[in-house]
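Q: How do we represent a protein-ligand complex in a form that can be generated cell by cell?
A: Start from the inputs.
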Amino acid sequence: MAGNVTFTMIKPGAVKKNYVGAILKMINEAGFVIRAMKLTRMSGTQAASFYEVHQGKPFYDELVKFMSSGPIVAAILEKENAIADYRELIGATNPDNAAEGTVRKMFACSVTQNAVHGADSDENAKREADFFFSTFERFYD
Ligand code: CDP
Ligand code: MG
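Then emit the C-alpha cells for the protein with magnesium ion bound:
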C-alpha cells in the first residue's frame, strides 16, 4: 500500500491552545483513518533526532526547542494517497502562504509554530511512525 500511510504530529502550540479536537475532526472529515495515536512529549534530544535532517539550518535550534516545549499528539494516518493529500490538508509550511481552509491557515501562529507536522515521503512516514510507535500500538482492520 505504498503512499497510503502518513505520519503527523499536532505540535505543542496547537495542543496548548486546545485545538486537538478541531484538528482531528478535519483529519477524519478529510477521510483519514487513525491507525495509531498518542499524547506524549519529546525531550530536546528526541526532537533534535526527529528533525536531524534540518540540522544546520537557521531555524533548527528554535524548532527543536519548540517541539520539546510541551506535549504533542503523534498519529499514523491511512488514506489513499495519504502523503500528498495530508500535505494538501495542512497547507504550506509558512501559514502566511497556506491556502484558506487548511489546518495551518486556521491554527498556526508562525512558520515555526505551524500547528502540525506532516511526513513528506513514504520513507520518512515509516521512519517517523517507527520513532513513536511499536507494532502493539498500531491498529489495522
Ligand atoms: O513541516 P514541513 O514539511 O512543511 O516543513 P519543513 O521544511 O520540513 O520544516 C520542518 C519544520 O521546521 C516546519 O514545519 C516548521 O515548523 C519549521 N521551519 C521553520 O521554523 N522555519 C522555516 N523557515 C522552515 C521550517
Ligand atoms: Mg518536512
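Residues 94 and 111 are 4 Å apart (CA to CA). Strands lie at 5-10, 33-40, 72-78, 116-118.
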